[in-house]
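Hi everyone,

Forwarding the result from last night's run.
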Amino acid sequence: MTDPFFTVIMPTYNRAKYIKKALNSVLNQTFKSWEIIIVDNNSTDKTEEIVINFKDKRIKFYRISNNGVIAVSRNYGIIKSSGKYLAFLDSDDWWRSSKLELCYNEILKGKKFVYHNVKIVRRKNQFFLKNIAFFRSLNNPVYNDFIENGPAFASSSVVVEKELFKKIKYFNEDIPSNWDDFDAWIRLSKLNTEFHVINHALGYNWVGQDSGLTPEVQIEMIFSFKKKYIDNSKTEKDYLPQWCVYALIVSNFRIKDYKNSLFFLKKIKFSKLSLFKKAKLLVLILIIYSKKILN
C-alpha cells in the first residue's frame, strides 16, 4: 500500500456533535489519496464511538492527554503521519469537496504552503455566510505582514509540505493554545517561504459560543504574542500593532472591563481602520460612556 499524499491532522476534544460533519467532508473529497489522524484529548462524550463507526482504514484514532495544549495533539498527529503534505482541519470545521484537489493542483506547480478563504458559521442552519474576517493575501516580507497585520487565514485552510514544517520543529508547545498555529506561520515566514493563496472559500469555520476563542483567551493570546515578537524588537516602548489594539478594545468590552477598553481606545488610529471597524468602535464608545454616566 502506497503512502497517502495528504495527512489530515485533526485534534479534538468533546466534539461529538461536530466531528461527523468534519469527517464526512474529508471522505467526500474528489482527491482520494489521504489519511486522517485524529488525536483525541480523552473526550468524555461519544467522539470515539462516532469515529470508529466510520470503519474506514484511512481514519486513524489516537487518545492522549495534552494537558490543555492543542499543539501537543497536533504534533503527535504529525509524528504519526505518513503523507508528504499536511492538511489541518479542526474537528468543528469542514471542507468543500474540491479542497484537496485544488490544493494538489497548486502543489504540482511547486507550491509548498497553500491556504484559502473559508466561510464563517456562527449557528446551526445559518443561511447567510460571510468570508472569514482575517483572510487576506500576504505582502512581502511576509514576516512583517504577520507582525503588523495579524493572522491572515484559518488553520483549517492550510496545506504545507511536511519536510518544510519539520524545519521549524512543528508547533510550539510552550505557548498558550489558540495561537500556536499563528506562531508556526510566523516562524515559517522567516524561512522566506511563499505563502500561496487560493482566493476562494473552500471550507467552513465554526465560531460558535463553544469554539473556545473567548475574550479572555484572545487577551491572553495578544499579550503572549507581544512578549515573544514585540517586546524584544526595535520598537518604541509599549508599542502594539493596531490589530492587537483593536482586539484588546473589543475583548475587554465583551468582558465588561470598560476601563481597559477605553485605555486601548486611546491608542487606536481610526484612519487605519475599515469603515466597519470604525462604526463598531463608535458604537462601543457610546455604550461605554452611557454606562459610565448611569453608574
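The chain has a mean pLDDT of 91.

Cheers,
N.
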